[in-house]
Design brief:
six-stranded mixed beta sheet; 2 domains; about 525 residues; 23 strands; five-stranded mixed beta sheet; alpha+beta
Length: about 525
């Protein structure tokens, strides 16, 4: 999701395109989706729009080979490029401008990436103020766009035996995958805010100082949709924080949610009622290449998945929180949090290359969707790799940046990043494309809280700091001071800040101890 004002970008995920013809709709009946899905074709995770998330707390699950209303009904023999279907809720003149800009963005992507199959995106252009009631944020920020995948597939990477969520657009590049899933009709869903003052690709005048370049925004979101995004977030910390005074901040990858959950377990999600399961953490493909002081974040993910052997049912949220606080594993999650708020501490490291990319870790506190899912602003905002910084100033267009950087909007580091995710780049040799062997992940038998194990005993952890949240904090996110980053982590944070090299050594040592 992209904001202007302070111009801070939050989470954004998927974006591709379907037809060159344009469909104009004069209403806000946007058909978007979020869920995990399995079977002969593996487990999938459908994704919801923010509007749907506001009206539903549950993540639905299904088998990938089960029917879906969005599965493509026919095969179209089209060139391998990006296609789109546009739903525009504005005047004909504005919608023509939007269509021309979307078309330009998809042509740029199609000319740079050698796609193995056509990609399709469902794009909507409408008032966020009308539908989301997001007219302003903090009085000086306005949300201008978001994109996310229609579905992601849980796959096991044979090169490191890690399970990761592959967005449909990314997985489509793995042509030797068998059996092939029943692809959903659209690979990516994208939404852009019609309330914003946009500069369109076919505007006759130069961009003004109060305009945002829609072409640049669409390209940025498209790249997120192609997989340039991290799963690491403070969601679990936000979940636990109301129950513990002074809980040390931490980051984890996304929580794994298997199919066949018991209805009673699904109803307990994001509440303080009933049994609370933990089935493990799962990464996105780009997380494979992130390193903190030479320690791969995937190594830390593996360590964290030792908590309850990634298959434990806690009697209540209080037992779950007590178990986390008491766990020695939580220190790893705390260390990643500290790295995520320390400038230039986490790198994207490409295999078989000396090249690295510095990720965005300058924001304090951690900002979900901006931190780790973008390149470092200070290093790249005035370079050929400017496109994937978390913020940009109004009044700057792709056209003006092209004059400064002849490589075009997708810089060399970004192209190498896409190659590491499995995309072939027209200007690069095919050997630079990395496609590890993938197999469909299927949940192990006997997962607690599912129909395979409906009577699992619940773990009770009576001793610990967990207590009922004060009424004011149960719905309020914790506030952090940005003045002293190390204060978030107490003595542990001070040690990390003072001894980063020793910290990396300790992380490696601790990881070996855990796996003994």
């Amino acid at each position: 999701m992209l904001f202007i004002g302070n111009t801070q970008e939050a989470y954004s995920l998927y974006h591709n395109v379907w037809r060159q013809s344009i469909k104009l709709y004069r209403n806000n009946n946007h058909e978007c989706q979020q869920a995990i899905v399995i079977g002969g074709g593996g487990v999938c995770l459908d994704h919801k729009s923010r509007y749907q998330q506001q009206h539903s707390q549950h993540r639905s699950t299904r088998f990938c080979d089960e029917s879906s209303s969005n599965i493509k009904k026919s095969v179209r023999h089209l060139p391998n490029k990006v296609y789109y279907e546009l739903h525009c809720s504005d005047t004909d003149i504005i919608c023509d401008h939007v269509n021309n800009t979307v078309n330009a963005a998809t042509e740029i992507i199609s000319s740079i990436i050698q796609l193995e199959t056509p990609l399709y995106v469902n794009i909507s252009y409408f008032s966020f103020c009308d539908l989301y009631e997001e007219c302003t944020i903090n009085n000086d920020e306005v949300s201008i766009g978001q994109a996310y995948p229609s579905v992601s597939y849980l796959m096991t990477d044979g090169s490191d035996n890690m399970t990761r969520m592959y967005p449909q657009a990314t997985l489509k590049q793995f042509t030797h995958l068998k059996p092939k899933p029943q692809w959903l009709e659209f690979d990516i869903i994208a939404e852009f805010n019609g309330d914003n003052n946009w500069y369109f690709v076919d505007d006759s005048s130069a961009i003004s100082s109060d305009q945002s370049d829609l072409l640049r925004t669409i390209l940025h979101e498209l790249v997120h949709g192609l997989g340039f995004i991290s799963s690491w977030s403070d969601d679990l910390y936000q979940r636990f924080q109301p129950y513990v005074d002074g809980l040390i901040p931490f980051l984890t990858p996304m929580l794994l949610t298997p199919p066949k959950q018991l209805e009673s377990i699904m109803q307990n999600e994001n509440t303080d009622e009933g049994n609370q399961p933990f089935w493990g953490f799962v990464e996105l493909p780009m997380d494979k290449y992130l390193k903190y002081h030479s320690v791969p974040l995937s190594t830390i993910t593996n360590i964290l998945n030792n908590w309850g052997n990634a298959n434990i049912l806690y009697n209540s949220i209080y037992d779950m929180v007590n178990a986390w606080v008491d766990s020695n594993l939580s220190v790893y999650a705390q260390s990643v949090y500290y790295g995520s708020i320390t400038i230039q501490d986490i790198l994207l490291v490409f295999p078989n290359s000396n090249n690295t990319v510095t990720m965005e870790t300058s924001l304090v506190p951690f900002t979900d969707g901006s931190t780790l899912s973008h390149v470092d602003y200070s290093s790249y905002h005035n370079s050929a790799d400017y496109l994937m910084t978390y913020t940009t100033k109004p009044g700057v267009s792709i056209a003006s940046m092209n004059q400064a950087f002849s490589t075009g909007p997708l810089g060399p580091n970004l192209l190498q990043s896409l190659s590491s995710l499995g995309y072939r780049i027209h200007s690069q040799s095919s050997s630079s494309t990395i496609r590890p062997p993938l197999t469909y992940w299927n949940p192990p038998s006997g997962l607690v809280g599912t129909t395979d194990n409906p009577s699992a005993s619940a773990s009770i952890v009576p001793s610990g700091p967990a207590r009922p949240p004060p009424s004011s904090s149960s719905s309020t996110a914790p506030s952090h001071s940005s003045s002293t980053a190390s204060s978030h982590l107490g003595l542990f944070g001070y040690f990390i800040k003072s001894h980063p090299f020793l910290t990396s050594i300790l992380l490696v040592i601790w990881s070996r101890i855990v796996f003994l």
